[in-house]
Amino acid sequence: MSDVSIIVSTTLGPNLTRGKLLPLVELPEVREVILVQNDAAPRLPKVRSVTLGPPRLGRLLHVVLRVIVLSVQILRTRPSVVMGIYMMPHGLIAYLLGRMTRRRVCIHVIGGPSEVIDGGYWVDQVRRPNKHLERLYLAVLRRADLVMVVGTETKTYLANHGVSADRIHLMSSKIDAHRFRPMSRTSHDYDLLLAARLIPLKRIDLFLRIVADLKRRYPHIRAAILGDGPLRGDLENLARSLGIAHHVDFLGFHEETHEYYTRAKVFVLTSSSEGLSLAVLEAMACGVPVVVPAVGDLADVVRNGVTGYLIEDDHQEPLVREAFVAALANLLEHADLRRTLGANARSTILDGYTVEDGARRWRAVLAGTQTVHPAFQIAASKDFNVESR
């Protein structure tokens, strides 16, 4: 009865790979997940990784290689579902190969509406805004069997643009609540922690300017940046020029992120575009209040004055910076408020964002594809009555 197999094309990092795949491999009905991506995947039960390596011969040839490898794997294994996580190129490839081989197609939009609007320019920022590409994305999504999105903003956007609402399923990254949990501390190493890849989209420069503003009020403020990327050198230079080099630690990339969240009083995100950030969910699971921009699907979990603060982002940096500084100062000055918001944040994750929740919701979603074993229909009707989140 355990004969469901899924082939996945993506380029996720190790932590996001866990957040996406752990709920699937929890299901006894899922026999195998075949993961085709550039780098080696973390070791997970039932996951077989096919590693392509970095695109040394250029992006186009690397896409061709991916298509060939996926085609071979699909013909060999005849999976129940072909999934692409992220539209370009994975969603397009999954749709093409799934239709050619008569497999069910699942496309996972993880970057919020910005992954589709203007052809994904506001997420990738490597091409010019492209309305033709946006129309192509929407046409493919309208024809996919399953469209997974990380939050309600994305679902509303796609439904308003012709994607059938009954084929759009809310499925954020899911959190291992045992791994990511609060730790009792009498003191913290950092006042603020930001976790993100060091790329323009994440606006780490804005975070550094916020720290510089707060330093005028709190001369001993300590902040940390967890992550790496091509802008690291420029950002370290900016920290020096702002006079905060000794107040900000660039920690680099660490896979064991759960060891860092509870070392900070507040978690911060400054991105110009997001879906539903895995780092935000992880920090909340650790009982850390969050201060984030009101972009993408972050409002699904961040409620003002309840689990953290949402900062309205009108792209006028002085006003955005001022709002961040006010919210962060309020939290830094009120330990009781931090504890209350942190406890609420943890409760939010436990109520719908855990690996176990994801497994139940994936079972309900897969039961509707009519391509998998009837065990899905039986189990879903007996055990679960859920609305996918």
Concise summary:
By secondary structure, the protein is α/β, with parallel strands linked by helices.
Structural notes for this entry:
The structure is a single chain. By secondary structure, the chain is α/β, with parallel strands linked by helices. It has two domains: 201 residues, Glycogen Phosphorylase B (Rossmann fold), CATH 3.40.50.2000; 161 residues, Glycogen Phosphorylase B (Rossmann fold), CATH 3.40.50. The protein is 42% helix and 17% strand. The strands form two sheets. A seven-stranded parallel beta sheet has the order 3-2-1-4-5-6-7, with helices on both faces. A six-stranded parallel beta sheet has the order 10-9-8-11-12-13, with helices on both faces. Helix 7 links the parallel strand 8 and strand 9. Helix 1 packs across helix 13, helix 7 crosses helix 11 and helix 13 crosses helix 14. It is globular.
